[in-house]
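Subject: sequence -> structure tokens, single chain

Hey, anyone have a minute? Need the predicted structure for the following. Not urgent.
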Amino acid sequence: MTVGRVKCLLVLTFSLFSRMIFAQGEPSTQVEPPKSFDADEVIFGHVLDAHEFHFFSFHDGNGKEHQAIVPLPVILYSPQRGFSAFMSSRFEDGVESYKGYSLITVGKLKQLGDKYHIGQIVPVKDDDSIDESVKVYDLSLTRNVVQMIIALALLVWVMVSIAKRYQRGEGVNSAPKGSQSLLEPVIIFIKDEVAKPNLGSRYQKYLPYLLTVFFFILINNLVGLIPGTANVTGNIAFTLILAAISFVVILFSSNKHYWGHIVNPPVPHGIKPILIPVEILGIFTKPFALMIRLFANMIAGHIIIICLVSLIFIFGALNTAIGWGFAPLSVGFVIFIYFIEILVAFLQAYIFANLTAVFIGQAFEGSHDDGHHEDKVIV
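Reply:
Had a minute. Here:
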């Protein structure tokens, strides 16, 4: 809770500060800083989805800017123009259009308004104006999609390789080695501290799902901390799908006792008209809480890090000496927040899996006595 409040406070502070630096006001006698550095473009370019992996930019001896990027394929379908496929490098950072399409950048968005969004591909005419008569369906492999595929492949490879080692007898009658010794304590922790306390005797049925959710979120969290990669878990569409899957699992795990407590709660009759809508609303607030909690925590940390780095260039635009003087302090804070984000990566994966187990366990409401009776018989 404290970490979340600190994050929100820092995000608000740096956002207001960057707005004050780059706000357009009345002409003054002071020298305006150069506009070569756009904080909005850097921040939004980092946290939003894109059609390329951007690692860094540099200028050569002639002052020409070069960018280290990995372009991704752009796949478009238009009923008027048909299919189009090309690499995102054709757009040249949104400056040029290609095959009648253009990329919306931060600079273009400020001119076009809120009707469009950053990274959107729009059809254009010969004069580069947007062609409203053409409809486009974007089927491209963006960096979020590519990184999710990489994370999924990494998850399957790690789990299958470890499972094969157990099948060969390694780590069964002896101490686990290598990657087994790294993951086995985590798996046992999820089983003993998440699945069993919340699901009781039915934990084995849901343990594969809880482990999959935990490790999939964890891998995406950790990969997203690598500079130049995508912040997948900071994308609300990603957390929405995860929450929707958990929502389906919760509903299919419910029983008549669970729904009976919702439509006919055991309270006085005068309270039921008030409590029943609240209980029905609670069915949807549970997955909503899963979605917002993961999204907000992961995107906040990335914004804080990029804001701290951006402050070096903001102060440097005001005065070079101030920029160099502030750099060590900014880098120190970045390293500190970075280590916190590593902790948050594990923590948020655990919280999502744990809350999912809690909500599934609540769907067993009314049948807990049977589960406890079975446990007593076993004992």
